[in-house]
Amino acid sequence: RVPHLAPLIGGGAAVTATGVTGTLLLSIHLREVRAFTPLGTAGLFTAFGVTAFAGRRIARAISDGRGEQAVLGAGLLLQGAALALIALAARPAAPIMLLAVLLALFGLAHVVANTGVAVVTATAPDSSHGTTAALVATAQYFGGALGPLVIGSIVADGGGPPLGIGLAGGTSAAVGAFVTLARRG
Predict the structure, then answer these.
(1) Closest Cα partner for 9 from 114, 94, 117?
(2) DSSP three-state, residue 152
(3) Cβ(146)–Cβ(14) below 8 Å
(4) Of 93, 95, 107, which is closest to residue 45 (Cα–Cα)?
């Protein structure tokens, strides 16, 4: 039995729900407000992947010092902070380099959070590892589909992409706090 299965499944769903939502809404913002082309948006989003190896090292350091579930909690908290900062910086006159730096932070956080999902899933005993992995994967797909729908409906009601990105960040941070507290309890 995996200790703390609910935080793992909820955390896995939140990593994907908030990551997909933040990415989608920032892409819409760049197109509608900044008049980015699809290629320009893709170019800016390369910053998301630049920090992947650093994210892996950070995840390992957290795991070595505080355990696997701490990686998931920290990654979600960091992803929430990155999305909140992107929401604040998503203004028509914001420097592109600022958005690139914040996208790099978001990418780092996303790697840490997804590493947390993977390492906690790996702690499942052999007898339930397949079922645990299937539940987590299903939760991530569900989160990836549902997150943009729920938060996107708020954006459609007039909040705009920055509000939606901020809501995704707040959700990520809240679930990160839950995962962190569940680890202690």
Answers:
(1) 117
(2) helix
(3) no
(4) 107
Q: Is pLDDT at 184 greater than 90 in this prediction?
A: no
Determine the distance from the C-alpha atom of residue 1 to the mean position of all C-alpha atoms in its chain, rounded to a whole number.
Answer: 26
Give the CA distances from residue 184 to residues 119, 151, 179, in Å, rounded to whole numbers and listed in that order: 17, 30, 9
pTM (2 d.p.): 0.91
Give tens-digit pLDDT for 137-149: 999 999 999 999 9
Taking Cα atoms as reference points, which of 32, 26, 70 lies closest to residue 167?
Answer: 26
DSSP assignment of 76-138 equals HHHHHHHHHHHHHH-STT--HHHHHHHHHHHHHHHHHHHHHHHHHHTTS-TTTHHHHHHHHHH
Confirm if 126 and 47 have CB atoms less than 8 A apart: no
